[in-house]
Amino acid sequence: MRTEGSGSSHRLRGAIPKAAIGAHINFRPALWLAAIAVAAALIANPLARAQQTHRRRHFRHSRKAKPSPTPSPKPTPALKPVVLIAGGTGMVQTPTGEGPAVLDAAQIYDPAANRFVLTTPMTARRDRHAGAVLPDGRVLIVGGVDTVLVPLLSFPGPPMPWILRSAETLNPQNGRFKAVASMKTPRDEPTATVLRNGKVLIIGGGETQAELYDPKSRSFTETGAMANERYGQTATLLRNGKVLVCGGGPRRAELYDPAAGKFTPTASMRQSRIYDTATLLPDGRVLIAGGSLSARSAPLDTTELYDPKAGAFIPGPKMKEGHAGHTATLLKDGRVLITGGHDDSAEIYDPIARRFVAFLHMGVSRFGHSATLLPDGKVLIAGGFSPTYKPQASAEIFDPSSGQFKAIPAMAQGSAGHVAALIQVPIAASWIKPTPSPSPSPSPSPTPTPTASTTAVPTSHPTPEPAER
What radius of gyration, in Å, describes the C-alpha atoms of the chain? Predict the structure, then answer.
């Protein structure tokens, strides 16, 4: 019984049904799994909250830190080349009939349209002035005279009131002229040479003192002085950055060094020249052509070459005709086109052959005109005086490929002694479109004097006489 009892007792305490045994065995892992899941949820919940908080903060930070959209730059307008022609002496209607007058008129030649169009006038009437295209595309115009002068008469004594100190610039974007600070000295027939540093060297006009125009400050400052007074001289920027100054009276030439701000003497030309031309050749030498021994002498047919390396002038070949008050244009092939100078002749200098290889004729005789190299290699010849000293409006194009001159439509306003420059303007610029323009009024005469007049008088020979001071 004890045995059974003990056995029964054993069965009562340890003998569990098989189904219950399976449930008991499976219950403990499930409980653990549940506990692990709860713990994981408890752990994950703060992490999730932290991650959510971080995301919210990052979103707010990114919204604040996100830069505002940068405005896209305005597209650069497409440009096209045109020729600016400004000032000079022209024929205008007066109460007593047609007569010469100094102009403030400006006009544009559009090669694509093959026409001249009057534009906004300059701020002052100017003849025998100088111009230069600045590095930023603007055009600087300086000095000149505002009265038609009698060619043969001289003007001794102090500077005359009609010789200008004023200067202005043209903005090619809107076609407007704007006055800038005046030069230190009044100048009649100065030269303006753009240096490598962007400044402009202004010399001549019967003065020794030179000055510089700074496009940034838009003002003039004095620089070194030349050894001699010059009038009708040339100033050529050499490859070494210096400027060769020759002609305008003395035979002795000078070099301007922008780094030192001084002029130093160099070699002497073979002969004195005034109203000659100087052209920088592809090999670095300078061709000096024509001119006159003095304002009253006949045009010269001689040339000479300046060699910067040797610092010397050597004789050059003779031209077929004498030229003074002419133009010299370096063509794209390296040759030099000489035009006008009191007749219709034109010649071409070949630097390789070192001689003049062509003798041509323009459509009309002219001097005091302009010759501008166009982007296609052709040359625009515009205006100038006739042999009887009448400003003319005729224009023509020289084509180097054919060696021919071809007449084109006349200028909007005939002129001589003007400034001409190739500039770039927006294609859609409204200021270069034809607009009605009143005829320019004649320039006022200065204080009565026997040495000035509104009517030009022909001289005994066709070389103009400068207004001596």
Answer: 41
